[in-house]
TrEMBL record:
Keyword Isomerase listed: yes
Name this polypeptide is given: Triosephosphate isomerase
Record: residues binding substrate: N8, W9, K10, G164, S203, G224, G225
Active site: H88, E158
The entry's keywords: Cytoplasm, Gluconeogenesis, Glycolysis, Isomerase
Its biological purpose: Involved in the gluconeogenesis. Catalyzes stereospecifically the conversion of dihydroxyacetone phosphate (DHAP) to D-glyceraldehyde-3-phosphate (G3P).
Family of this protein: Belongs to the triosephosphate isomerase family.
Main location: cytoplasm
Subcellular location, record wording: Cytoplasm
GO-annotated molecular function: triose-phosphate isomerase activity
Pfam family, one: TIM
Native species: Octadecabacter dasysiphoniae
Matches recorded under InterPro entries: Aldolase_TIM, TIM_sf, TrioseP_Isoase_bac/euk, Triosephosphate_isomerase, Triosephosphate_isomerase_AS
Length: 243
């Protein structure tokens, strides 16, 4: 089964962290899975050139123009990023990003020949209300454009209440949700939907990584806090290698 692990550094990382990154990359010269870090945009150009793929954390939906402070997919690709995360819950919350905006960003990334890691996930209130599958169904319907293929998109399921909290759904819940995501993708995209990688994200750490990564329909993980330090991320990568 295809395997991938992505470290999302969020708004963390300066040149002081590069030495540790290159040391980490040196440990994974020929990984048996796709290994990626998504650093802040300021570091992308300085982290390319190893076996660790480099992704971005967001892109603007337009190609260029009067959008002070924003970065287009073309610029990120030019800096050396091959992938871009879109629809992360922190973007949806902090910047009021809608499903329609996530779809537009996805198309922009594809137009720049980048691949997308598209995040979906329910809030704690939605989880408690038993609305998880309804929320995910709507997010997928509205934020995944028709052009999705097995090679241009990865779906990351990140329950909002599991991000940075140390809480995770049960293994059964993760398996059930991933099965639902898979079914939904197959219903819409057929064979391509059967092959699109699915990642779990939200408080992945060394102690739970293997149990999560061996679940059916889980192709790997999207890791936040535990991707920042080599000592934390290495055992998670090893867990994926062995899963
Ligand atoms: O949001 C996440 C990755 O995108 C998950 O973050 P944590 O691993 O810190 O919970």
């Amino acid at each position: 089964m295809y395997k991938m692990i992505v470290g999302n550094w969020k708004m963390n990382g300066t040149s002081a962290d590069l030495e540790e990154f290159f040391d980490f990359a040196n440990d994974w010269l020929n990984p048996m899975f796709d290994l990626m870090i998504c650093p802040p945009a300021t570091l992308i150009g300085r982290m390319t050139g190893t076996s660790v793929m480099i992704g971005a954390q967001d892109c603007h939906a337009d190609v260029k123009g009067a959008h002070t402070g924003d970065i287009s997919a073309e610029m990120l690709a030019d800096a050396g990023a091959t992938h871009v995360i879109v629809g992360h819950s922190e973007r949806r919350t902090d910047h009021a990003e809608t499903n329609a905006m996530v779809a537009a960003k996805t198309n922009a990334a594809w137009n720049a020949e980048m691949k997308v890691i598209l995040c979906i996930g329910e809030t704690e209130a939605q989880y408690r209300a038993g609305e998880t599958l309804d929320v995910l169904r709507t997010q997928m319907a509205e934020s995944i454009p028709d052009g999705a293929m097995k090679t241009n998109i990865t779906i990351a399921y990140e329950p909002v209440w599991a991000i940075g909290t140390g809480l995770t759904p049960t293994l059964q819940e993760i398996a059930d949700v991933h099965a639902f995501i898979r079914e939904t993708l197959v219903a819409r995209f057929g064979d391509a939907g059967a092959a699109m990688p699915l990642l779990y994200g939200g408080s992945v750490k060394a102690s739970n990584a293997r149990d999560i990564f061996v679940l059916p329909n889980v192709n790997g993980g999207l890791v936040g806090g535990a991707s920042l330090r080599k000592a934390d991320f290495t055992p998670i990568c090893s867990a994926l290698e062995q899963a």
